[in-house]
């Protein structure tokens, strides 16, 4: 067996995660998170917050809850089953920032928490910004 | 190439010590370990300090069990998975025993045992202690994502054992003789997936096993147990298939420590265990005690190591792997 055959052999026999089950779990839990978010929105509107502010408040609430759940160690246990269900909503972003921040606490607040905080979320921010610049330029020329 | 096997004439295993964490204490081998610590911080404030504390305690258990003081030990060697083997360096600071730091990833304990045996057999020292530790939390920080990050692991991923094993070798006879060893060669089979270290290490284990049996007068049937370090379920099955293709069927005596320490199904451990402490604690705790109870006489240990680091993985390099073999028998 040469290297190529060995790689093909190991890849073939390596079990994959069950895509169907994962998709269903992600759909249900992701949907539940969004429904909770919607619930908060309805609640904020009900108590008389202006619609724009209520939308922001709703995101902030989900970010806070995801951060809190990360801190008390529930988030990774839910995400283990939910996968993209917790990753795609704003909760995933919150977890990506809070988890390295908690982790790096032992290296101090400057070189630890502050410098490690964006180690996972950083690429998303950088390329998200780049993408929005490109989108902005295209939009500018088309709308002109 | 011939002369793969190193023969030792007067090296004996005197004592072993093992200390494990909570997950390991919930596994099927729990009753064999010398001590269990449920606190992942081991009473310290960081996981790195925890690993050092764990290694320090294990060494103390070894000294206690063998009735020796630190100054009675001629040479101490060991290693771990953290950068520059820092956990072990801190752990042994106060012992004032001459120290050699080793790195062989998960094969460290047997690498150390071979070096210790060579020192003793050559008459340079009377005894030598070997230790290797790993801690799930510090290893995750070293190699993967932050602990609380919500990610999913693949079915071939392995769980790093939290624990430490320490062994004492000496030139004075005990019933447990270290007879032979084979120093592994780096085998790079092209596997790049750090979540499938079993597939990366399987060929290294098979290479070392074949080198041993090609030269030895002993056959696999002559052994009561042939144990690999941490191939996990995936690597174990691959190695069985490869050995079969080379004409060796090892049967029930062929086991993997990475499959023994946890109840893989119940504890949801995917492909099983890995880490320096995997073989270090499973041999030190489980297998050695079975030898003491006369359940096993002739044992082959093949510790496997995946010598990757975070940067090499990011640079899309394959995983260089190694496997060291040692033959211990009760006389």
> CATH homologous superfamily of the largest domain in chain B?
Stage V sporulation protein AD
- CATH architecture grouping of the largest domain in chain B: 3-Layer(aba) Sandwich
* Overall number of structural domains of chain B: 2
Cα shape of chain A: extended
Low confidence ranges of chain A = none
- Along the chain, the helix and strand elements of chain A come as HHHHHHHH
Instruction: Give the CATH class of the largest domain in chain B.
Output: Alpha Beta
Judged by helices, strands and strand pairing, the structural class of chain A is mainly alpha
Name the overall outline of chain B: globular
- What is the CA–CA distance across the termini of chain A? 62 Å
| Helix-strand category of chain B | alpha/beta
Compute the average pLDDT of chain A: 91
Describe the structure in your own words.
The complex is a heterodimer of chains A (144) and B (331). Chain A has 144 residues and is mainly α. Chain A has one domain (18-143). Chain A has helices spanning 3-13, 19-46, 51-71, 75-82, 84-87, 90-103, 109-116, 121-143. The longest helix of chain A is centred in the N-terminal third of the chain and has 28 residues, at 19-46. The radius of gyration of chain A is 20 Å and the shape is extended. The relative contact order of chain A is 0.08. With 331 residues, chain B is α/β, with parallel strands linked by helices. In chain B, strands 1-9-14-13-10-11 form a 6-stranded mixed beta sheet, with helices on both faces. Chain B has a 6-stranded mixed beta sheet with strand order 3-2-8-6-4-5, sandwiched between helices. The radius of gyration of chain B is 18 Å and the shape is globular. The relative contact order of chain B is 0.19.
Which labels suit this protein?
heterodimer; A: 144 residues; mainly alpha; B: 331 residues; alpha/beta; Peroxisomal Thiolase, Chain A, domain 1; 2 domains; six-stranded mixed β-sheet; 10 helices
């Amino acid at each position: 067996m040469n290297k190529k055959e060995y790689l093909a052999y190991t890849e073939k026999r390596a079990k994959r995660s069950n895509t169907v089950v994962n998709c269903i779990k992600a759909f249900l839990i992701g949907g539940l998170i969004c429904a909770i978010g919607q619930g908060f929105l309805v609640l904020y509107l009900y108590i008389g917050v202006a619609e724009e502010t209520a939308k922001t408040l709703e995101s902030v609430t989900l970010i806070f809850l995801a951060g809190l759940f990360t801190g008390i160690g529930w988030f990774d246990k839910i995400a283990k089953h939910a996968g993209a269900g917790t990753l795609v909503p704003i909760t995933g972003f919150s977890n990506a920032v809070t988890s390295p921040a908690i982790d790096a606490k032992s290296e101090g607040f400057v070189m630890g928490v502050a410098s490690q905080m964006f180690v996972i979320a950083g690429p998303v921010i950088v390329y998200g910004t780049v993408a929005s610049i490109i989108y902005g330029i295209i939009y500018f020329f088309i709308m002109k | 190439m011939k002369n793969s096997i190193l023969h030792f004439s007067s090296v004996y295993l005197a004592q072993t010590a093992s200390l494990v964490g909570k997950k390991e204490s919930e596994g099927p081998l729990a009753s064999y370990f010398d001590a269990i610590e449920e606190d992942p911080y081991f009473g310290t404030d960081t996981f790195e300090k925890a690993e050092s504390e764990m290694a320090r305690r294990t060494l103390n258990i070894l000294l206690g069990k063998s009735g020796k003081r630190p100054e009675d030990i001629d040479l101490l060697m060991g290693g771990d998975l953290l950068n520059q083997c820092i956990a072990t360096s801190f752990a042994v600071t106060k012992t004032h025993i001459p120290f050699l730091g080793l790195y062989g990833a998960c094969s460290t304990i047997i690498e150390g045992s071979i070096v210790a045996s060579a020192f003793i057999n050559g008459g340079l020292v009377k005894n030598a202690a070997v230790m290797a530790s790993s801690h799930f939390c510090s290893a995750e920080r070293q190699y993967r994502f932050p602990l609380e990050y919500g990610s999913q692991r693949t079915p071939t991923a392995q769980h790093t054992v939290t624990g430490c094993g320490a062994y004492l070798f000496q030139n004075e006879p005990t019933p447990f003789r270290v007879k032979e060893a084979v120093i592994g060669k780096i085998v790079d089979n092209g596997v790049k997936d750090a979540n499938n270290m079993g597939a990366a290490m399987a060929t290294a284990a098979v290479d070392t096993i074949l080198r041993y049996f090609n030269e030895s007068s002993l056959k696999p049937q002559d052994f009561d147990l042939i144990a690999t370090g941490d191939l996990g379920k995936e690597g174990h099955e691959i190695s069985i298939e490869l050995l079969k293709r080379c004409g060796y069927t090892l049967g029930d005596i062929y086991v993997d420590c990475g499959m023994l320490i946890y109840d893989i199904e119940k504890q949801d451990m995917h492909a099983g265990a890995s880490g320096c402490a995997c073989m270090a604690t499973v041999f030190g705790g489980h297998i050695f005690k079975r030898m003491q109870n006369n359940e096993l006489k002739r044992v082959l240990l093949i510790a496997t190591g995946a010598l990757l680091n975070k940067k090499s993985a990011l640079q899309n390099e394959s995983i260089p792997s190694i496997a060291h073999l040692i033959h211990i028998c009760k006389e």
